[in-house]
Every structure is written in C-alpha cells, then in structure tokens.
Specification:
The protein is of the alpha/beta class and 274 residues long. 34% of the residues lie in helices and 20% in strands. The N terminus is likely disordered. One of its GO terms (cellular component) is membrane.
Length: 274
C-alpha cells in the first residue's frame, strides 16, 4: 500500500479483465478458498493471538494464515465486506450491530474468543472518587464505546444514566452528575495519549495494552466480565461462515492452547471467553 506502481496499458479491456479477476479471487479473500486466510485485526491483543495461532498451531491444522493489522475500527469491517480480507478479529456484538446498521454491511460473528475489560485510567488521581468537581473525563467518540464508557461510570457510581438507555447513550443521557464532570469525546486510539491532558480517560482494553497500561493493575475502575456483552469475536461476511479455513481458525482460536496463551500473556488484562 505504501509503494504504488503505475501501469500503463493500451489494451483497456485487458486491464479491466485483470482488475475484475483480482477482485474476484484476491489471495486471502473469501473467494480464494485455496489460498491463505487473511484476517484483519487490531495489533493488541488480536493480532498477537492470531500470530500465536499462526506460529504454533496453524501448520498442523493445515491452515495458511496471514495477519493484517489495522489501528482503526472501520477498515477491518469494510475490508471484510469488500473481500479484501477473508475475516476480521477486533470487535464486539454491540459495535458490529451498530456498524452493520450504519454502513449497510452484513458482517456476522463466527466464534467468541476473549474480553478486554474497559477501564478508567488517570495520571492525576488513584481513585474515581478523588476526581475534583468539574474534572474532564475523555471517552471514546464512537457510538457503542461511548455508551459502554458511560455505563462503566454509571455502574461505579460516578454518574447516573437515565433509565433504559442502550448502546447509543451519550453525555446527554446523564441524569445525575454529582461532580459536574465534563466529557471530552476522542477517537478511541487517542485516549491513552490524552491522559496527561485530562483528569481521567475511559480506554478500550486493546489500546490500553498497546500504551503499556495494565488494565488489571492500572485501571482505577475496571469493567466486570460477568454477563458482559462486549466479548470480541472472529467475524466474516455473511455467507463465509462455512469457509473451511474460517472453521479451522475458529476451532484453533478456542483451543486449550490459546486459552493458556491468553492467560499467561495478559495476566488478567485480557480474559478468555470460551
């Protein structure tokens, strides 16, 4: 993608034919069942888990696996939808439901693998009740994760949300805000870098780990795994669930070896969900 080669041809029909062939059977796409399965993933922990599978389990299972890393929450689904990749691994069900609704995509979950507990972090206080009146708290700007962040604060008595608010809750849905907290909406990936500029920030688990934060140790409030709907899963475009490569990967991702890897590698900051 970084190196672009321009090809000039006088035979436009041949060029169009070649382009069509590439789109229909790009290596790793859902149309190329004999090639490597290319999976779009967030770098941590998703790509790390996939690379463990690739390095230790895939060959024995007869699976060719390629891991493609993305640092945003939009491209993996769009690439899965258009067939640029064969699957993705980075999201939870409420996020996917919202994405499919807004983008008109038809991505579906295959198998649930792990939970990354959402956490409140601060460089200025050690407990949530130490936040001063009028303190600024940064939250993710995307719909589902913002609601999830507010629910975390509600569950721990920092704020109180209006009854019945769902996965589209915003600061406008706060019914009680005893400390008069101000909320700053930022792209999820930017939140760890905001900690020196705000009083606290609610950070997704993957971005916390990338920033060398340890959710189980460093979060001043941490999401409970009990009955948690935000576990992350392997996902594909609808109709690709029966791709033999996808089935092999789903089985490997929920194997005892992967469960042990997650427990040993992340020490409670990422939790197996199988």
């Amino acid at each position: 993608m970084r190196n672009t080669t321009k090809t000039v041809t006088t035979v436009l029909a041949a060029g169009a034919l070649a382009l069509g062939a590439a789109a229909c059977g790009a290596p790793g796409s859902s149309d190329d069942k004999d090639g490597a399965l290319v999976v779009a993933a967030s770098p941590v922990p998703h790509a790390e888990i996939l690379n463990y599978v690739k390095d230790h389990l895939a060959d024995k299972a007869g699976l060719k696996l390629e891991v493609k890393e993305f640092t945003d929450y939009n491209t993996p689904n769009l690439s899965t939808q258009d067939g640029s990749v064969g699957a993705n691994y980075f999201q939870n069900q409420p996020f996917l439901d919202d994405f499919n609704k807004k983008k008109g995509t038809d991505i579906v979950p295959v198998v649930t693998v792990h939970l990354e507990p959402l956490g409140l972090y601060s460089h200025k206080v050690k407990k949530a009740d130490e936040l001063k009146k009028g303190a600024t708290v940064a939250v993710p700007s995307d719909t589902v994760n913002e609601a999830r962040a507010l629910k975390l604060l509600d569950a721990n008595g920092v704020i109180k949300l209006k009854g019945g608010v769902g996965n589209e809750a915003t600061p406008k849905d706060i019914a009680a805000n005893p400390k008069g907290l101000k909320f700053k909406e930022l792209e999820a990936a930017q939140l760890p870098r905001s900690l020196d500029d705000v009083d606290a920030a609610v950070v997704n688990g993957n971005y916390a780990i990338e920033a060398h934060l340890k959710p189980a140790k460093d979060a001043i409030i941490l999401e409970s795994p009990k009955n948690n709907p935000y576990a992350n899963f392997l996902a594909v475009k609808k109709g690709d669930e029966d791709d033999p490569r996808v089935k092999k990967l789903a089985k490997l991702l929920t194997s005892p070896q992967v469960k042990k890897f997650i427990k040993d590698q992340y020490q409670g900051s990422v939790l197996p969900s199988f």
